[in-house]
């Protein structure tokens, strides 16, 4: 399985549209930042992207925001990753701060096993693995997302969520360590890539 390298989430999104449906899709963005994480579409504008990213990172959202931006198709309960997310993020930070080469800096979206017919718990994103990569004493925070399934039209929400959670982890790690850490790469693993949630 080869890994395709992309300059931005938008480039990966556009290429995915030409490939889906396909099994075992892998793409990587070498330097992930807010600018190259944003994909605006008819389904997701920048405000809805920011809303879902905040919500799924366990940050405060208002009832007004919920009324404005939440729809079942954009994710519903299946796309809600917020459960215990503050604790999960803090656990990742603690892991990376205390064990620089940790292989346990992982956020799991489900908190327990789930029956296959429970749609709410059939989270498309299963885990995000975080790591610190070192080169010439320069550190980068990198991550890999593992998806059970990925609808291409929902990709914009997922990319911006991953960027946001990486930013949250990065800022907390930087407060705890005495060396500089910058944003690094993001790798997107998908078992089955499909055009829409209905496929």
Compact summary:
The chain is of the alpha/beta class. Helix content is 35%, strand content 27%. The protein has one domain (4-71, 79-194): Thymidylate Synthase, Chain A (2-Layer Sandwich), CATH 3.30.572.
Task: Walk me through the topology.
Layout: E1 4-6, H1 9-19, E2 22-29, H2 34-37, H3 46-56, H4 63-69, H5 85-98, E3 106-108, E4 125-135, E5 138-151, H6 155-176, E6 181-194
Parallel strand pairs: 1-2, 5-6
Antiparallel strand pairs: 2-6, 3-4, 4-5
Provide a descriptive summary of the structure in words:
The chain is an alpha/beta fold. The chain has a single domain, classed as Thymidylate synthase/dCMP hydroxymethylase domain (Thymidylate Synthase, Chain A, 2-Layer Sandwich). 35% of the residues lie in helices and 27% in strands. The protein is built from 6 helices and 6 strands, in the order βαβααααβββαβ. The protein has a 6-stranded mixed beta sheet with strand order 1-2-6-5-4-3. Helix 1 links the parallel strand 1 (4-6) and strand 2. Helix 3 (46-56) crosses helix 4, helix 3 (46-56) packs across helix 6 (155-176) and helix 5 (85-98) crosses helix 6 (155-176). The protein starts with a strand and ends in a 5-residue tail after the last strand.
């Amino acid at each position: 399985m080869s890994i395709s390298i992309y300059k931005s989430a938008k480039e990966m999104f556009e290429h995915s549209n030409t490939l889906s449906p396909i099994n075992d899709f892998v793409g990587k963005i070498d330097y992930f930042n807010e600018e190259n994480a944003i994909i605006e579409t008819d389904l997701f504008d920048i405000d809805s992207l920011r809303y879902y990213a905040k919500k799924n990172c366990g940050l405060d959202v208002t009832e007004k925001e919920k009324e404005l931006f939440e729809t079942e198709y954009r994710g519903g309960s299946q796309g809600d990753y917020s459960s215990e997310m503050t604790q999960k993020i803090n656990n990742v930070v603690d892991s990376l701060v205390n064990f620089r080469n940790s292989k346990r800096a992982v956020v799991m979206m489900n908190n327990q096993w789930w029956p296959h017919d429970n749609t709410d718990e059939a989270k498309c994103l299963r885990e995000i693995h975080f790591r610190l990569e070192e080169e010439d004493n320069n550190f980068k925070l990198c991550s890999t997302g593992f998806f059970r399934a990925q609808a291409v039209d929902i990709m914009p929400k997922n990319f911006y969520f991953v960027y946001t959670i990486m930013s949250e982890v990065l800022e907390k790690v930087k407060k705890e360590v005495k060396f500089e850490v910058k944003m690094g790469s993001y790798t997107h693993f998908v078992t089955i890539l499909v055009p829409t949630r209905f496929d």
